Amino acid sequence: MDELVERLKMPNAAQRMNTLGRWLVDAEPLTIWERDTRLLSRAGRKWRRRALEFSRRFIRPVAVEADLHHHEFDRRAFINKAAKRGFLSLLMPAPFGRANLRAYLRSTIFQVILIAEEFCTESGGIGLLLLVHYLGIAPILLSGHFPSYIRHLIPLQLKSMTDNPTLMAFAITEPSAGSDVEETEGGATARLVTTAKKTTGGYLLNGRKVFISNGQLADKITVFAKLGGEALDSWTCFLVDKKMDGFSVGRQERKMGQRPSDASEIILEDVFVPNKNIIGKLRGGWALNRNVLNYSRPAIGAMAVGMARGAFEKTLHFCRETFLGDKRLIDYQDVQLELADMFTQLWAARSMVWHSCRTLRSNQAAAAATKVFATDTAYAVCNKAMDLMGDHSYIRTGGVERALRDVRLTQIYEGTNQINRLALIEQQWEAEIEGSEE
């Protein structure tokens, strides 16, 4: 019986076909990871393989301790290690960054989302620690303002290729304005407290930002503030240096997950920001913020896929090594069906992330839908991993409970998934109205 089963398997059965028939059958025993990687461009293959090697060599050994004792984890040294290997400089091509020019001209963020999944497969928190730098730089890149490129973007990217980068962060969230400032109707009624008052040679910033990833660690932050006496449509982006007088870091949150990256309060008390540090146009911050989110949301999807993939891989190993009665768990068809569902869901989520990132310009509906589907799917996969591993999944050093804690946050930041659904409908509704008028 076993011998017959082996003969019926496709690689063996294909040998009985004629030459052309065998050529038309892809029966090579490759993992999905390897098969997908071979479909990428040369640059994509290079960065995906490099990120996999880095995550296994450097992230995996410290993932548990970085989560359990994150205050003692040397974040800066780890960031420097990643920067030296080019992982913080993929937002611009050579000579200002490490992104491959040909791939970059097809998609500005595809090379970033490839490394995002690999990092987060081993640790969502360390992945966030490394990737927030890109979010901080994104407003400068997407502003389309060439003087800002010369003054800020190019120097930042050149520094990002060294082993001592100028670390960036991104600040929009306020104590009474969270996901509502990431959606049009919510933004119109958001209670904003961070303001910029015109003064000689620049602006004075006052207010607070909260839940700022890497807020305590960053050297510079792209901060969004409304102009004094005006509403959200006056939002403007400012590049703030932590060395500026009046800048301080307040409360650091005790997070459930993604703990290696801090979430801190930023306090601004008459911080003078010169005119040259305005990013983009005055009062252009609302549109700029929305565009940044359109680029970052698929990256969040990639991170979530990575966290769920890590949980799946640990579950698969557990099922291969653990016996129930005289059979391994993986030898039971019920377990195989559950694993197959997890596998399929991950593959579908990754495919959606890759598809939405294969264009040069990002799209609001596609970005929002990708973020919702990938993060919801990833959470479901992590939850199923907990079911299959039972008590073993609950152990702090096992990695699966950490993946569940980490992936839950991906459904919340960059706009909750409810807000992202509204963003999807907003754009599609406008498209339907315009289409009906033609």
Overall average residue pLDDT: 92
SSE pattern: HHHHHHHHHHHEHEEEEEEEHEEHHHH
How much of the polypeptide forms β-strand, as a percent range?
Answer: 5-15%
The assigned structural class equals alpha+beta
Describe the sheet with the most strands: 8 strands, mixed
Total domain units: 3
- Per the principal axes of the C-alpha atoms, what is the gross shape? globular
- Helicity level, as a percent range? 40-55%
Quaternary organisation: single chain
CATH architecture of the largest domain: Up-down Bundle
Care to count the β-strands?
10
Catalogue the unreliable spans: none
CATH topology of the largest domain: Butyryl-CoA Dehydrogenase, subunit A, domain 3
DSSP summary: helix tally: 17
- The level-1 CATH class of the largest domain: Mainly Alpha
Give structural notes.
Keywords: FAD, Flavoprotein, Oxidoreductase. It comes from Caldithrix abyssi. Residues 284-425 form the Acyl-CoA dehydrogenase/oxidase C-terminal domain. This is Acyl-CoA dehydrogenase. Belongs to the acyl-CoA dehydrogenase family. It is a single chain. This protein is an alpha+beta fold and 438 residues long. The protein has 3 domains: 32-166, Orthogonal Bundle (Butyryl-Coa Dehydrogenase, subunit A, domain 1); 169-282, Butyryl-CoA Dehydrogenase, subunit A, domain 2 (Beta Barrel), CATH 2.40.110.10; 287-437, Butyryl-CoA Dehydrogenase, subunit A, domain 3. The chain has helices at 2-8, 10-13, 19-23, 32-38, 42-59, 63-68, 75-84, 101-106, 110-122, 124-142, 146-160, 184-189, 285-321, 333-356, 364-389, 400-410, 417-437, and strands spanning 168-171, 195-199, 202-213, 220-227, 236-241, 247-252, 263-274, 278-279, 323-324, 327-328. The strands form 2 sheets. Strands 1, 2, 3, 4, 5, 6, 7 and 8 form an 8-stranded mixed β-sheet that branches. A two-stranded antiparallel sheet has the order 9-10. Strand 9 (323-324) and strand 10 form a beta hairpin. Helix 9 (110-122) packs antiparallel against helix 10 (124-142), helix 9 (110-122) packs across helix 13 (285-321) and helix 14 (333-356) packs antiparallel against helix 15. The longest helix is centred in the C-terminal third of the chain and has 37 residues, at 285-321. The chain is globular and about 85 Å long. The protein starts with a helix and ends with a helix. The model has no long low-confidence stretch (mean pLDDT 92).
